[in-house]
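dumping these here so i dont lose them again. two proteins, back to back, each one seq then structure tokens. dont judge the mess
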Amino acid sequence: MTLPSCKNWRKSSYSAANSDCVEVGRSAEGMIGVRDTKQAVNGPVLHFSTREWSDFLRAVRSQTS
């Protein structure tokens, strides 16, 4: 299976100044990609469907409220 290529990467607003952060991007197919900024070009990317990403965000937000 070939994974989609994500574009328009955005750095997390919770990122530290020393590049300890993650970036989130979206592919043309609608998949959400998450990567480590320090390894941006050569590092691995976690891929989520829109539904999986929504479920993940909901779970994280429920833990911080």
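---- next one ----
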Amino acid sequence: MAKFAIGERVEKTSDDHKAGIVIAIFPTTDGNYRYAVDMEGYGALQFFPEEKLVVHAG
């Protein structure tokens, strides 16, 4: 089961901790999940593995 849900606010665990909203969830062949996230200020979807995201604190 995926850790995050579509519509949930998340942020990256690395770099500048930018926040965004989960738009889609994709299961991988190895049983993990990747997330399409609409990141604030980028104007495009970015894709992250589950371990690179946390629930947005603010």
